[in-house]
Amino acid sequence: MTAMTALEQPMIHWVEEDQPRSARWRSESGNPAPKRVVIADDRMTADAAYRLACEGTGMLWRGDFQNARQLLQALARRAEPKPKKRPKLPATPTDAFNLHRQAQSQRARTLGMLLLPFEADYSIPLRRAPDVQQACNEAYGAPTDSFVTSLRELQGLIGAHEWRKKGVDIPALGDRIHPHYGVYSPVRGEYIGLVAEAPLPSTRLAFDIGTGTGVLAALLAKRGVTSIVATDMDPRALSCAKENLLRLNLDGQVKLMETDLFPEGRAPLVICNPPWIPARPSSPIEHAVYDPESRMLRGFLSGLAAHLEPGGEGWLILSDLAEHLGLRSRDELLAAIAAGGLKVVGKIDVRPQHPKVSDQADPLHSARAAELTSLWRLAAA
Questions:
Q1: Which of 126, 125, 153 is nearest to 140 (CA)?
Q2: More confident residue, 7 or 375
Q3: What is the pTM of this model?
Q4: Where is the Methyltransferase small domain (predicted)?
Q5: How many angstroms separate the CA atoms of 99 and 91, rounded?
């Protein structure tokens, strides 16, 4: 996911002090520009703001920045689903998933209606506004022009900046991985543990398909694989992986390549951790989680045999959450493996440990409680 150029950014328009005004709209998370924009400040009540947000009206903030933060928190409380509005009859897992996604999308649209002005140098011309120039530079690149974006998007940029600074502890690496904005953070460590434990078919060469932060390429290098080709289609991911590998002093073992799925040639080990849920992402950032019609999964399985050396293995890291949600069956997965001219030579499973597993208030709790993450060891049939 690359940052938008100024020419690709739409304009928003409003009236202020009886004069027509306009500015570029910026949203790396893919939110459309609000069609109607009004001026808002410290006098606006939370109820009035919530009504406007639900109507799809953007509120360009001219008051105190910290008051805008408090207003967004008040909007978030009002956007929470009310218990009495939840369906009484139990939905199927697929229905629960679709309703959950719908509610998430509506909530994001509503909370995205509180807007902030930015100067061309990424400063915010509001009282008590923080210095966010470094966070904006990391997400957007070098500044070019003034623009407007949502306070919620800014919070995402600041959160990504903090993750990038402190990093994610990876016990199997004995070090930390520092994710960049827009690159999926390896916070679910159970799949990394599987790659650390599985027996290596060779330490000569490996392909890491869809490397992201570079965490699995780094782990293979730490395990003694002397040469790794790590691919990704996203320039942000490749930049992130490069920075991580340099910091870990593993860049000499890993070659990064911008390509869709496989590099040329064959390897004794080909590894892939595709997005686990076959559904349409609602924003560019969600492409790491949602894989429409299992495009990446099917592409990996259909092309794997042609990129394996004789006796080599393909490692597919995949959660079965989609199966518990009714979005993909085990039979469909096995059929795709067989259709790719592959056979299963082994499988290692682990139960996730993330907080949502035990959160009974989560609408997807039953599926999450049953979830297994697996490393499928595949070979040419």
A1: 153
A2: 375
A3: 0.89
A4: 202-317
A5: 9
